[in-house]
């Protein structure tokens, strides 16, 4: 049973609201926008990701006979609604920021315009898709900036919160600038480059560490990476130096070694010295083992001769900031602007656009959020990507989205690129949008819009 791919992967209240809308004929055009209310304490910016999967979801959403039969068996829905649900197809329009775009709080990265039952029904899964990938891409972008060109590989599938999360984390981290992943399915599905070394269990399965190295080299003579810290890291490095001439005679060259525990700064320096003295100056040193932002920064600032990082749990769970305060909210219905006024969760009404200004050096210098039909200096970030339920053009490839992310990160203000905790970015609210907020508030002071 493919539960993860079912259209029933939604919240119950979406179906209940859809039935109520249809029963009461509340089916005029609605506008919903997805945005993040505020940044986590440790973030200065976010990276949009997941649009490809969001559009694929909208294009293919339907309810199978099995779905309808099961819903009927619950006794919660009427026959007329289930008949309408069986014929359901998304026929709305979508505007979105391209994947790889840097964004900030309250900036909509996706807007859905559709009959209200449709626009409401897709909420849960859209949030699920966009939240996860934007969360991971934003985390990965921090590592990319910290690593300063050193290799980054996703090792996080085993600790991800489920199979889909691990797979999409591999995609999102590559989009943000990682070099690849250990998750094999990401190579098949998305073309993400694959990297893999060996586990300590492989070394332990042999009575002699040297024999383990030789056996692995014989089975995988190309792109050989050996793990050195199962027993004594420096002793393992010396064993490798002794083995290298024999391996070379058989056409096998060691590409890299991996260190996964201990004082990675001290060990990388001592291993580098042993390898260099043994004529293995071209062998790269990779490190892993519970690393996060602070570890990457510390290793680089210490001048450790590390050429790459394997990052696992902290990436795929975004452990320092495991969730974004994101929302998908109604901003217009039946041509009338709407706004939520709940304390701490207020929204800006109407169909919005985000304009980004750039300075003389090409760097980002401020954004403006205002109404879609307003006019502001800068580049409009939201683009029309779907009309009447069908994409207007093929979405950019993952390579193109990766290039966009790289360009966006390069245009961040220097303080944000350095991940300075106090760094901020100016996002203004346009006068037309502020005026609409006041108008909607006056209209709704007594309750619902008239």
Question: Which tags fit this structure?
Answer:
seven-stranded antiparallel sheet, alpha/beta, nicotinate phosphoribosyltransferase, single chain, TIM Barrel, 450 residues, 2 domains
Q: Beta-sheet strand percentage?
A: 15-25%
CATH class membership of the largest domain: Alpha Beta
Radius of gyration: 26 Å
The pLDDT mean sits at 96
Q: Unreliable segments (pLDDT under 50, ≥5 consecutive)?
A: none
Structural class: alpha/beta
Report on this model:
The protein has a seven-stranded antiparallel beta sheet with strand order 13-12-1-5-3-17-18. The protein has a six-stranded parallel beta sheet with strand order 7-6-11-10-9-8. It has 17 helices and 19 strands. It is of the alpha/beta class and 450 residues long.
Element layout with pairings:
Elements lengths: L11 H12 L5 E8 L9 E2 L3 H10 L4 H10 L4 H8 L6 E4 L5 E2 L6 E6 H6 L1 H25 L3 E4 L8 H14 L3 E2 L2 H7 L9 H5 L4 H11 L4 E4 L5 H17 L4 E6 L4 H14 L6 E4 L5 H9 L6 E4 L1 H4 L9 E8 L2 E2 L14 E7 L5 E8 L7 E2 L2 E5 L2 E2 L6 H13 L3 H4 L9 E3 L1 H14 L6
Parallel strand pairs: 6-7, 6-11, 8-9, 9-10, 10-11, 15-19
Antiparallel strand pairs: 1-5, 1-12, 2-4, 3-5, 3-17, 12-13, 14-15, 14-16, 17-18
Question: What's the gist of this structure?
Answer:
The protein has 450 residues and is α/β, with parallel strands linked by helices. It has helices at residues 12-23, 51-60, 65-74, 79-86, 116-121, 123-147, 163-176, 184-190, 200-204, 209-219, 233-249, 264-277, 293-301, 313-316, 398-410, 414-417, 431-444, and strands spanning 29-36, 46-47, 93-96, 102-103, 110-115, 151-154, 180-181, 224-227, 254-259, 284-287, 308-311, 326-333, 336-337, 352-358, 364-371, 379-380, 383-387, 390-391, 427-429.
């Amino acid at each position: 049973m493919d539960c993860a791919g079912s259209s029933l992967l939604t919240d119950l209240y979406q179906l209940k609201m859809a039935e109520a809308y249809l029963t009461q004929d509340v089916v005029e055009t609605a506008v919903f926008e997805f945005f993040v209310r505020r940044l986590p304490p440790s973030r200065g910016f976010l990276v949009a990701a997941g649009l490809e999967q969001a559009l694929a979801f909208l294009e293919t959403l339907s309810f199978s006979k099995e779905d309808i039969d099961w819903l009927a068996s619950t006794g919660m829905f009427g026959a007329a609604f289930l008949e309408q649900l069986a014929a359901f197809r998304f026929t709305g329009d979508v505007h979105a920021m391209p994947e790889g775009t840097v964004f900030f709080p309250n900036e909509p990265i996706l807007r859905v315009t559709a009959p209200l039952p449709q626009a409401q029904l897709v909420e849960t899964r859209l949030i699920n898709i966009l939240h996860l990938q934007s969360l991971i891409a934003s985390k990965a972008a921090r590592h990319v900036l910290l690593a300063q060109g050193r290799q980054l590989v996703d090792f996080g599938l085993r600790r991800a919160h489920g199979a889909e999360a691990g797979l999409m984390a591999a995609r999102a981290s590559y989009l943000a600038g990682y070099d690849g992943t250990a998750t094999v399915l990401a190579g098949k599905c998305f073309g993400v480059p694959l990297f893999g070394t060996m586990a300590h269990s492989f070394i332990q399965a042999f009575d002699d560490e040297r024999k383990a190295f030789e056996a692995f080299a014989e089975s995988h003579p190309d792109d050989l990476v050996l793990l050195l810290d199962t027993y004594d890291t420096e002793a393992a490095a010396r064993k490798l130096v002794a083995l290298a001439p024999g391996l070379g005679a058989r056409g096998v060259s060691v590409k890299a070694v991996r260190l996964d525990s201990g004082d990675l700064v001290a060990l990388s320096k001592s291993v580098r010295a042993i390898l260099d003295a043994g004529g293995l100056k071209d062998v790269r040193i990779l490190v892993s083992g519970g690393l996060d932002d602070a570890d990457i920064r510390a290793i680089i600032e210490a001048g450790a001769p590390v050429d790459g990082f394997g990052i696992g749990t902290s990436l795929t769970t975004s452990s320092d900031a495991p969730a974004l305060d994101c929302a998908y909210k109604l901003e217009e219905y039946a041509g009338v602007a709407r706004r939520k006024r709940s304390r701490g969760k207020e929204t800006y009404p109407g169909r919005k656009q985000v304009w980004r200004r750039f300075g003389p050096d090409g760097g980002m210098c401020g954004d403006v959020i205002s109404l879609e039909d307003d006019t502001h200096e800068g580049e409009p970030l939201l683009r029309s990507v779907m009309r009447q339920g069908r994409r207007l053009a093929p979405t950019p490839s993952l390579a193109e989205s990766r290039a966009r992310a790289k360009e966006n990160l390069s245009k961040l203000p220097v303080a944000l690129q350095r991940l300075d905790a106090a760094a901020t970015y100016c996002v203004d609210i346009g006068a037309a949008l502020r005026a609409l907020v006041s108008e909607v508030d006056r209209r709704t002071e007594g309750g619902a819009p008239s």
